[in-house]
Structure formats: C-alpha cells, structure tokens
Amino acid sequence: MSRISARHTAETRARILDVAEALFVEHGLDGTSMRMITGRAGVNLAAVNYHFGSKESLIREVFEQRVQVLNRRCLDALDRCVAKDRQSGRASHPGDLLEAFFGPVFELAADTENGGHRFMRLLGRTHSEVSPFIRGLLAELYGDTLHRFLDRLCASLPDVPREEVHWRVYFMIGATSYAIAGTDNLQVFGGRVEQQDPAELIPRLMAFLVAGLRASPPGRTEARDPPADDAG
After folding, report:
1. Could you state, in order of their start, the residue ranges of all structural domains in the chain?
2. Residues near 80 by beta carbon (within 8 Å), at least 6 away in sequence
3. I need a surface site. Which of 28, 133, 219, 229 has the fewest CB within 10 A?
4. Which candidate, 149, 12, 145, 126, places its Cα nearest to that of 59?
5. Within a 13 Å sphere around the CA of 58, how many CA atoms are in the beta-carbon half?
6. d(Cα 77, Cα 98) in Å, to the nearest integer?
7. Rounded (10°) CA dihedral 164, 166, 167, 173
8. Which of 107, 96, 127, 121 is nearest to 213 (CA)?
9. Where are the alpha helices (DSSP H) in the chain?
10. pTM
11. Is 230 helix (H, G, I), strand (E, B) or coil?
C-alpha cells in the first residue's frame, strides 16, 4: 500500500469514527443506523465493514479510543495522589481521591476543541443504557480503573462501610453522567436556564460530590468523614 493510499485509509477510518460518535450523541446508539453513518461520512457500507466489520465493533472502537485516554489520565492522577501522600506520611484524603478520579472526567467534558465534550455527553447517555452489550463494554473498558479508585477511597474512609462507599460512588457517577449529558433537562425544573460552558459546570458538580461523600450515613445525624479541609 502506498503512503498516499495508507493516509487516505487512515483518514477514512478516522472520519467514520468521528461521524459515528456525533450521530450516537444526537440519536442514541440504537437510533443511529449504518445508513446514517455512511451518508454523513460520505462513504459506502463496504468501507465501514472493511474498517470495523459491524456496528457493535464500530461502537467499541468509538468508546475504546476515548476511554483509553480517560483511564490513563485517571490512573496517573491516582498515582500522583498516592505518591504525594506517601511522601507526607499521611493517608489519602477522600477529597483528593475524588479530584483524581473525577478531575480527568471533567477535563474531558470541558474539551470542546477535540471532541472530548461530545464524547462525555455520549458516555453520560450510555450509563443509563439497558443493553447488555453496552453494560459489558463499559465494565470491560472502565472496570479496572473504577475498582482501583474504590479500593483507595475505601481505605481513606476506614469508619465507613465499604458497601456505603460503593453506594455513594454509584450516586456520584449517576450525578456526573446526568450533568455532563447536557443541562437541557434543567428547563424541566422551571424557568429559563442558559446552557453553561462545561468548565463552569465543574466547580458546581465537584462541590456537590464532595458534600455527598461527607454526608451522614443513614441513621446518623453527624458525618463520620473527615472535616471540610481534609476532604478537599
């Protein structure tokens, strides 16, 4: 294959991925047909089949290329957090771990130039998908990073039952997914709400997540988590 032909093939593949991601955000995974993808990308079905083989394989590629970057950023942030705490001789603060885990998510959600914001809207939508394929794909791509974060967070909250920590992280992921999927639904709650810049949404959401982590467990009136300055 000539250099020009190889470059053309790579460009076609990248264009199909970009178009598919955009359409998945607009119409959902099930609502996007292969015909819609080929029409907008300006290619025929044979080209899609050549590069990806099937719609499920195309969906996998869309998620893999983004989640791999997200995982690497999350793990690097967790490693830096743990290394800093080892140097200081203290246990990791829950708030620092939240920043390490959710910070890269928010950074990607604020990236309006390279498609990060668009993908995070897609990821937010798919967290509510009932498809076994999507659930299995997310668990496969994101499971190890999530489990590592949970282990670190549980270790930083020795007085909070592990099950309770898991529930809180579950609620945090749900709130984050809903928020990054778009603020359009705020209109439902009355009044006119302007679409916010993703970067402006982050401080609001992080404050909410930290407060949720420090809330009193069920049946208690006082929080057991570290004070505000320790929780980040």
Report:
1. 1-53, 54-214
2. 100
3. 219
4. 126
5. 29
6. 10
7. 150
8. 96
9. 3-27, 34-41, 45-51, 55-88, 94-109, 116-126, 132-156, 162-180, 198-214
10. 0.76
11. coil
What fold is seen in the domain 1-53? Arc Repressor Mutant, subunit A (1.10.10)
Q: CA–CA separation, 203 vs 117, rounded Å?
A: 16
Question: What token pair was written down for 108?
Answer: 């990607």
Dmax (CA) of the chain: 70
User: How far is the C-alpha of 7 from the C-alpha of 11, rounded, in Å?
Assistant: 6
Type of residue at 216: S
Q: Note down pLDDT in tens along the chain; length 232 residues.
A: 555 566 668 889 999 999 999 999 999 898 999 999 999 999 999 999 999 999 999 999 999 999 999 999 999 999 998 888 888 888 788 888 998 999 888 888 888 888 888 888 888 777 766 688 888 998 899 899 999 999 999 988 888 899 999 999 999 988 888 777 665 555 555 555 555 565 677 788 888 888 888 887 777 654 444 555 544 4
